[in-house]
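Q: what does this look like with zinc ion bound?
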Amino acid sequence: MVLGCSGVFIPISVLEWYYCCVQPTPVGQRRTRRIYTDLGMPIGLLARQRVCWPAPMIATKEYTEGTTTFLSADIEHYAADSHQLTSDLPVFYNPRMRVNRDLSVLFLLAYLDRSPIQAMCEPLAGCGVRTLRYLNECPGEFHALVSDTNPLALDVVRKNIERYGFEHRTTIKRGDAKVLLLTESREKRFDFVDLDPFGSPAPFLTAAVQSLSPKRAMLGLTATDMPVLCGAQPRVAIRKYGGLSIRAPFSHELAVRLLIGRAYSVAAMNDCAVYPLAALSTDHYIRVWLDIRTSCTDSNDQARNMGFVVYCEGCMRTETVPLGPSLTQLRIQHERDDCKGRVSLAGPLWTGEMYNQSLLDTASQFLSKKPDNYDKRVPKLLGAMREENALADHIYVDIHALCDLHGLESPSMASLMTRLREAGYKASRTHFRPTAIRTNASVREITASARDLTNPM
Ligand SMILES: C[S@@+](CC[C@H](N)C(=O)[O-])C[C@H]1O[C@@H](n2cnc3c(N)ncnc32)[C@H](O)[C@@H]1O
Ligand SMILES: [Zn+2]
């Protein structure tokens, strides 16, 4: 049987093809898929649970990211029918996640610069582009375990690995991510695990942390369940991340902090400490890169990085309150004495650092050597991360939201930051939002500066 594609044919077994048709879907999601015969004749939209004969052909296409060329399901071909994009593809590939992978390559390059790795694992691999890029674009002879539950994906991964001659550096296995992480790491733990699931990485965290090399390892986590993390489903956030999410102009920062907070808790219960390397929030997802090492002492110490963020909708004041024995009441100091705004509470979440400056700087050096290998948004994102790190303990303030609240026109971010710096404050952009800044000035002082700039006396 063949998996057909524009120019490339990948053999698959009857069982694998059957799997493609009956692969389980999340509850409540109805999916259909266009199946093609060996002759390339469309035989229509089939309900998932139906099996048809003759065998399907899956259209694949060649794509390029960075310096890596690879095959995956032909997105345009499949999108023509269902307006659903990537999650409905017979083999997963989402080109909109390129920035995530570009930065992942850069951060792995920077990490390898000081800490060579021997073994990595991507247990939710889709077409395998991520690992293929690590193998092709990063130095070293590290070995990669690539797995997925979808056999069609693994056939494409195999083809992609063969095209580069990386068979000796790769093991491809079909299976559940949690099981494989635990079983495949018994003889040799992984120095790098990359979790890039549909939705939340939380269910895979325990297995991932337990599969890591105790001395030192990197863990990359992508989360796409933004309604959960950004306050639309706060109870689900408690269930998945152990903390409340809230709706706020800075909810994406809270999302990152909830994710790191969960990673800290899981690492801590396994006697490990978590050192955040970088955080990304863009499009419809967040991503964090963490250094994880066994250390009860550091882990105990890091408990003080867990806390709450208190936010008043009426005056946009935010306060960070550490979790600890001194936490008796969560009362906010409003920006105006008469403020009666609704106060909400996010967390417990990670209130500590989100970035490692030296890793960001090294990544930036790698970027400047080969800028054309990366998406054009990457330099701006990385530049803003480097800039905001020094002020990352101040939750960012969305200037458009603040000006709307006070009926002001929004000044440009550059002029507002200059104004604040002239007044003796620190201020930086943030990669999280082009309309937001980080500053040690209070909301009242930011408002006064914005007013001066847009309504000069
Ligand atoms: C978001 S995609 C991965 C994308 C890929 N990492 C990339 O960068 O293009 C998630 C993948 O996880 C696979 N998957 C879902 N649940 C799984 C599980 N429990 N164990 C292993 N793979 C799973 C899906 O088949 C899908 O290919
Ligand atoms: Zn208030």
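The two ends are 77 Å apart (CA to CA). Residues 357-454 form a domain with the Phenylalanyl-tRNA Synthetase; Chain B, domain 1 fold (CATH 3.30.56.70).
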